[in-house]
Design brief:
Rossmann fold; nine-stranded mixed β-sheet; disordered N terminus
């Protein structure tokens, strides 16, 4: 069966699903959510997009019951028992509500989720049973679509990244077709596991083929989702085009070209929530608005003190990022010496690869008055850095969407970015920031030189700041794009002629 046919067979007899007057029910399945735990942009999106969609749909979220989730509540009511499958254990399903009324399913399995570290691993590396841990998330989403909660059954699954991508496959293997959207936040992370996992995940042997879950002799959760989901989205229009090419397709470009040819691949740009506003942000040392450069300078002074830098009238550059090769951290390290030599300063916050952490600490030791580094992450520090810096360095080799460049513009910090993915879609060269075409030291240095020249021209600098701060990156447009896609997916599925209220 081809991916285009996967919504042709649907259980239309479920009592909740057959009542066409109901507001459609959307289940948003995610491995992280900013309300509880986040490691990057996916957590931010999972905290914002479901809320933006609530005016149109009955939206619920499902997330694993990590320790930080469970400890937020005195009691989590159990509303169903989730059956196991092969080596995926059974567990309880809880339901909680956030302070603003968003309902969140919590998968309650201490053996799988209540561990130290990130959702995916600890200092020793990724957890060795991540295939089971996230198959459990996918199975739980599929069970909610099947109607295991007697009070609520999903009409559409919105699945995020490889950790939830087996859900449409589990439904297909059971003969039940519920429409599904898979959003790829970063194609480089695919959830690839040995073929030996096939049996314990409950994957049928006949699904281990090119038109299924097989990926170069292994199992790929993400490929399964790309194949079995009704529609695929990614988080910017440019990235949606890039991933259909061999250069950026991470071995999945052929399947993605097929999905694009079917009209089932789209790019929908992420947004940011209303908290990213320098007029109201409580984390800032001074709130400010367009043309209040005194307030912006007050935040710069706070940042310099926080990082132990000298008082300076030169430009302040910031990096707020995971410290990994994808983010072009090596390019930023290479550029730091010339920034300092020309009177600039650099502040860095983030964590990642030890080689980059060490190189940045070494920079700070050699230039203590000009370079400040904090390995880790503090929300308040990050926001003050966006507010106080003049320029944000973001030379990512690839960037599906990126949020930091949006945050920076809202706070009047001009991003210096490689023109790829969402960076190309959100930064206007010479107007709200600076872009360069080749992810190389030379291309990056040229863009930094342009920024330095602009800093010396205060009239032009302030005009660019005004343009940047005037940009709107809210969720309204993205929400409407998802409404259109959801309506199409549900409308193309027999028995699901539900309307958005």
């Amino acid at each position: 069966m081809s991916p285009a046919d996967l919504t042709d067979h649907v259980d239309t007899h479920h009592p909740l699903r057959s009542r066409s007057h109901l507001k459609p029910r959307i289940l948003f399945a995610t491995p992280e959510m900013s309300d509880f735990v986040k490691t990057g942009g996916l957590g931010e999106v999972a905290g914002s997009l479901p809320r933006a969609l609530r005016r149109h749909y009955d939206v619920r979220v499902i997330i694993p019951g990590y320790r930080r989730v469970v400890e937020r509540f005195d009691h989590i009511p159990v509303i169903a028992q989730l059956p196991g499958r092969a080596g995926v254990p059974p567990c309880d399903l809880g339901l909680v509500e956030t302070s603003d009324g968003l309902q969140v399913y919590v998968i309650l399995s201490a053996e799988l989720y209540q561990r130290d570290g990130t959702p995916y691993g600890n200092a020793q590396g990724d957890f060795g049973d991540n295939d089971i841990r996230f198959a459990r998330l996918s199975l739980a989403a599929a069970e909610i679509a099947r109607g295991i909660d007697p009070a609520w059954a999903a009409d559409l699954l919105h699945l995020n990244d490889w950790q939830a991508a087996l859900a449409p496959a589990y439904l297909a293997w059971s003969g039940l077709r519920i429409p599904s959207i898979l959003t790829v936040h970063n194609l480089a992370y695919q959830g690839v596991f040995p073929r030996e996992s096939l049996g314990r995940l409950g994957v049928p042997e006949d699904a281990f083929q090119m038109d299924g879950v097989e990926f170069y002799g292994q199992i790929s959760f993400l490929k399964a989702g790309l194949y079995y989901a009704s529609h695929v989205t990614t988080v910017s229009e440019t990235y949606a085009r890039e991933i259909t090419t061999p250069e950026s397709g991470c071995g999945l470009d052929g399947l993605l070209r097929t999905r694009a040819a079917q009209g089932r691949l789209a790019g929908i740009l992420n947004g940011i929530d209303e908290s990213w506003d320098p007029r109201t942000d409580p984390h800032l040392s001074a709130r400010f608005e367009i043309d209040d450069w005194k307030g912006k300078r007050a935040n710069a002074e706070t940042v310099r003190r926080r990082f132990g830098l000298a008082v300076s009238r030169g430009p302040l550059f910031a990096i707020v990022s995971r410290l990994v090769h994808q983010k072009g951290i090596d390019l930023s390290i290479n550029a730091a010496e010339s920034i300092v030599a020309e009177g600039g300063q650099l502040v860095v916050i983030g964590q990642g690869e030890s080689r980059f952490e060490g190189a940045l600490r070494d920079l700070a030791r050699r230039h203590p008055a000009s370079v400040g580094v904090h390995v880790g992450f503090e929300e308040a520090d990050a926001r003050r850095m966006f507010a106080g810096s003049d320029f944000l360095l973001m030379p990512s080799r690839f960037e599906p969407c990126g949020l930091a460049q949006m945050y920076a513009q809202r706070f009047g910090s001009l991003p210096i970015v490689h023109g790829t993915g969402g960076l190309a879609d959100t930064v206007e060269d010479g107007v709200t920031g600076f872009t360069f075409g080749e992810a190389s030291p030379r291309g990056f240095a040229t863009a930094i030189r342009r920024a330095m020249d602009t800093f010396a021209q205060k009239k032009r600098l302030n005009a660019m700041r005004r343009h940047a701060m005037s940009r709107s990156f809210g969720w309204d447009k993205a929400a409407l794009d998802y409404v259109s896609l959801y309506t199409r997916a549900i409308g193309n599925t027999p028995g699901l002629r539900l309307r958005a209220a």
